[in-house]
Write a structure and sequence with these properties.
With 173 residues, the protein is of the alpha/beta class. Helix content is 27%, strand content 24%.
């Protein structure tokens, strides 16, 4: 990083397939975070640029998977890779790719490719400057707890403390 001094960084991760975009039950296939470089959340020109670029990336992906894009909370973690790169002068966009029911992994690889091309094009031609960085917050915050690996519907549930059987749904992760 010090030798190249890049102006823009990407931090790529896999996210849990049970992450949702917002509080509903739609999988967050791709999630973003424009990373701060300090606990005070100082906005630099690069940070604002990354909010605009991320907005364009999410606009491009929304065409292919509406409702399946999310945003991570922007807390600062002093030991995190992206947070340190941002602190050292390379503003970072975190991209977390999860899963999307009914789509294979190659679909998500193609979506990442679309996102990267959109980011690089907007960086090269300056088109991101026409975007309001506040639009970044249109992406819903990620959540968890609404999706499950297995759900048994109408299961007989036996309580250890009582000799009764009730009927209910049982969800497992």
């Amino acid at each position: 990083r010090d030798d190249w001094n890049p102006e823009l960084g990407f931090n790529l991760h896999n996210q849990n397939e049970l992450t949702t975009a917002g509080r509903g039950n739609k999988q967050a296939a791709v999630s973003f975070l424009v990373v701060y470089g300090d606990a005070e959340k100082t906005e630099s020109d690069g940070h604002l640029r990354n909010k605009r670029i991320t907005t364009l990336m999410s606009d491009a992906l929304r065409q292919f998977m509406p409702g399946h894009l999310g945003r991570y909370p922007d807390g600062y973690t002093s030991t995190a890779f992206g947070d340190n790169f941002s602190a050292w002068g390379t503003p970072v966009i975190l991209i977390e790719t999860g899963a999307l029911h009914g789509k294979d992994e190659m679909f998500l690889v193609r979506m990442n490719f679309v996102a990267f091309l959109t980011a690089l094009r907007s960086y090269a031609d300056g088109s991101s400057f026409s975007i309001d960085p506040a639009r970044y917050f249109e992406l819903p915050n990620n959540s968890s707890g609404n999706l499950f690996n297995i759900i048994f519907r109408g299961a007989n549930v036996v309580q250890r403390s009582e000799p009764t059987i009730t009927v209910g749904d049982v969800a497992l992760n």
